[in-house]
Structures are given as C-alpha cells and as structure tokens.
Amino acid sequence: MLLFCDIVILKVFCDNVSMRKEEINMTKRELQKLIIIQKTIERKLIVREAAQALGLSERQIFRLKKGVSEQGESFVIHKNKGRKPANATPPEVVNKVIYLKQNVYFDANFSHFRDLLEEREGIILSQPTVYRILSSAGIESHRKHRKTHKIHKRRKRKPQAGMLVQIDCSPFEWLPNMGKLALHGAIDDATGQVLGLYLTENESMEGYFEVMRQVFTQYGIPIALYSDRHTIFASPKKNKLSIEEQLEGKMANQTQFERAMSELGISMIYASSPQAKGRVEKLWDTLQDRLKVELRLAGIDSTEKANEFLKEFLIRFNAKFAVEPEDPIPAFRDLPSNVDLDNILCIKETRMVDNGGVFSFKGDYYQLIDEKGKIIPVPPRSKIIVLLNSRIGIRVQYGNQVFAVQKLDERPKKLQKTIQSTSSSKSKAHKPASNHPWKQNGTSTSLYWWEEYDRELIKSLYDSTCAWR
Asked: What's the distance, Cα to Cα, between the start and end of the chain in Å?
C-alpha cells in the first residue's frame, strides 16, 4: 500500500507534469499511470503496490515499466489517440441525419427515427449513435418530457396465443386536419401481436366487428376476449340486478356484440380499470407515436385509405414488437367453412310478418325473395330475424335459411273481408205481415195465447189442492 507521504509526493509530481500537459497531450489517467510507473522504476514502489494503485495486473505493470524505460513517457499514451476511428460516422451522414430529423421526421421519437432511417433512407445506425448525433445538435426527443405514471404490477402473459385477446379503441388525431378519429384494435396477450386495426370516425360496434373479422379470417377464433365495460360490450344493467332477481333467473339482455361472440363460442371478460388491460393500453401509447408519423409520410388523407395502409403496417409492426409465446401451439380454433361471418357480425332484430308476408323495419316495408327474385311465401304472424350491417345491407333469417329482401314502394293496404253469396241473385229484404206485432201501431197485444184444451188444463191445476200445499 502507498504511504501518506508517497501520496503527497505523487500529487506534487502530477502537478509538475501537468505543466507539460499541452506538450505531451496526456489525460489525467495517463499522467497518474506515468507517475506510478516512474516511481516503480525508481524502486520507490513495488510491483504489487503499483498494480493495486492502478487497478491493473502485475503483468501489465512489468509491461509498462519496460515500455517507459525503452520508449519514454509517451508509451503510456494510447496508440489510437488522435486517430480517426474506423467505425466513425462520416460528417456528411451526420449532417444528413440532423437535416432529416429537423425537416422530414420532425415528429418521430429517436427510436422510431432510427427505424425510418433504415427503412426509407438506407442509413443504418445504432440507436446510441443516433441519440448521440441528435443530442450533440441540441435536438431532444419529445418522449423525454412525458409525465411518468404510477407503476402497476405486471401480469404474466398467457402461455398460448389465442387464449386471451384484448380489444379496445383509442380516439386520437391519427390523420392530419381531420380531428379525432377512433382506432379499434385487438392484441394477443401471449405474443403482443396486433391481430387487427380498423379506423372509423367514432367508436362503434361496426369498428369492433371489422377488427374481429380480421382476427377470425387470419388467425382463427380465440378462447376469450378482454374488454372494458363499454355499452357495446356489456349491458348497463348487467351489474344492477339484485340478488333476488338473480335467484329468480332474471338476466340482463345481451348486447349485439356479446351475442355475436357467444354464437362463436367466445367468452367475454370485463376489466374494471384501464390498467387491467395494460397490453392494449401500451399499444395505443406506441401507435400514437409511430402510426401517426407513418400515416403522414404515406400521404393518407381518409379513413378508407388508412384502413388499407394498416394491413401493410401491421406486418412490419408485428415483426418488430411481437414475442414468442411460452407454448408454441396456438389456442385459436379454425373458423368452420359453413359459417358466414356476415350473418353473425351484424345487428339482429326479431320481427313478425303480416298476412301478406310483409314486415316493417326502420319505417320501411319488405318482402322475402329468393335468389331469382321470387317472393317467398311466409305464413302470417311468423317470426323472422332481420340481419343488418354495412356489408350485406338487410337480410332475413327464417328458419335455418337466410333470404334477401325487396323493399316495397308503399305500405300494403289491409285486405277487406268479402262475403260471398251462395246464389247469384241478390237477396230481397223481408217484409213482415200486416198482422205482425211490429205493425200494430202501439196497440197492446197479449204476449201469450193458448187453445181451449189448454185453458181447461190450467183451471184443473188451479183447483187442485196439491197446488196450494
């Protein structure tokens, strides 16, 4: 170990040598190394003490002693000092990176900007290099100043893809100068893979139906869906039933979305807070940074173009952010070939046909027709199910079949009941006889009359003693 006096001597010597700092261009670390090596050469320090002071091995001390003795003080200076690194970023690339960040990709964060440089500009740089270039130019990432949120306990991922799919919607200014639009999405809990995205003007059942259509056609039917308690997913009366009502078997009506998922055998799970479905909430945080920039760079100016762009965007996004599940065998079920999603992902309402096979729906009147346009006879007062969505318009399910409909121009008139006569001639009105009571002009007539033998019978009964007992 160094003595106290040796440390003082070292400090004084270091100060003296630092007067020649500009001449030999040494760092403080190199000066300290030179002083200790010189004291080792002068036998004021032993090799073990010098190794402890410099944090080097004894073998390195022997090598430094020999080098300083033979080549002088410059031996302790690193040989690459003053040389340009072989992997240094060329100045023209640095200038181009700064220009692109300030003028083209100004709204991208540093990580996304690095990806855009590689994908769109062919400039491959590491993220630390991009950060160093931009920071030295005084450019800061807009994510740096974001407010930190309370940290919640992370829930373990499901082991298989398709066991749990989280769905949600994010209102945000996704497209320039179009205000807030609603982006509906679904993400797999096990892999973090985005299974579907669909953009509409407002959060709607149709948006969720289109997202689930993407999930079913591309991946299959999941076991369960995890959502919030929006009225699209759950009835407001679902948790308001009393214990007595539940014991009586009363249940809240299913929403159209809940009914569609139950037809496909999918369970619905409802989250009590946004933090409970953290995967999809984190997805919105990432997409609000990346997708908005991508849509602007692609020149997207309508929801229709955006939904077409999202198909290609999802491939690149999942390739970067999706992870491998614990169990490689997915839990998705194949969509049966005989299932028509248009007849499930729709609004279903019950109606009753009248005597003419006509039913009313939203103020209009319709009849069932087959593929050839022929009217389908339906018994009066039969119940039918009306199917409605933007893809198929209006269809009707009667029995196990689904039929098209034709709209009537006007409301059908009620059928008049007609009485058919048995004879071809019209019946004549009946005239009462002249002695009919109605023709007596108010004269009173006896309501009863009898023959003479009836009078004798009555008299005998009257005189009988039995009648007066």
From this structure: 152
Q: Residue ranges per domain, the chain?
A: 4-76, 91-143, 165-240+251-321, 346-407
Q: How many residues does the chain have?
A: 469
Q: For residue range 63-112, list pLDDT tens digits in order.
A: 888 888 888 888 887 777 767 776 788 889 999 999 999 999 998 989 99
Q: Convert the pLDDT of each residue in 190-223 to its tens digit.
A: 999 999 999 999 999 999 999 999 999 999 999 9
CA angle 410, 416, 419 (to 5 degrees): 160
d(CA 269, CA 279): 15
Q: Are 45 and 2 in contact (CB under 8 A)?
A: yes
Cβ-proximal residues to 173 (8 Å cutoff; 6+ apart), any chain: 179, 180, 181, 292
**Fold category of 165-240+251-321 in CATH:** Nucleotidyltransferase; domain 5 (3.30.420)
CA-based Rg of the chain, rounded to a whole angstrom?
46
**Is it the case that residue 419 has pLDDT exceeding 60?**
no
- Look at the alpha carbons of 195, 285, 96, 91 in this order and tell me if their dihedral is positive or negative: negative
HEC secondary structure over the chain: CCCHHHHHHHHHHHHHHHCCHHHHCCCHHHHHHHHHHHHHHCCCCCHHHHHHHHCCCHHHHHHHHHHHHHHCHHHHCCCCCCCCCCCCCCHHHHHHHHHHHHHCCCCCCHHHHHHHHHHHHCCCCCHHHHHHHHHHCCCCCHHHHCCCCCCCCCCCCCCECCCCEEEEEEEECCCCCCCCEEEEEEEECCCCCEEEEEEECCCCHHHHHHHHHHHHHHCCECCEEEECCCCCCCCCCCCCCCHHHHHCCCCCCCCHHHHHHHHCCCEEEECCCHHHHHHHHHHHHHHHHHHHHHHHHCCCCCHHHHHHHHHHHHHHHHHHHCCCCCECCCCCECCCCCCCHHHCCCEEEEEECCCCCEEEECCEEEEEECCCCCECCCCCCCEEEEEEECCCEEEEEECCEEEEEEECCCCCCCCCCCCCCCCCCCCCCCCCCCCCHHHCCCCCCCCCCCCHHHHHHHHHHHHCHHHHC
Q: Are strands 224-227 and 165-172 parallel, antiparallel or unpaired?
A: parallel
Dihedral sign for Cα 331, 332, 337, 338, please.
positive
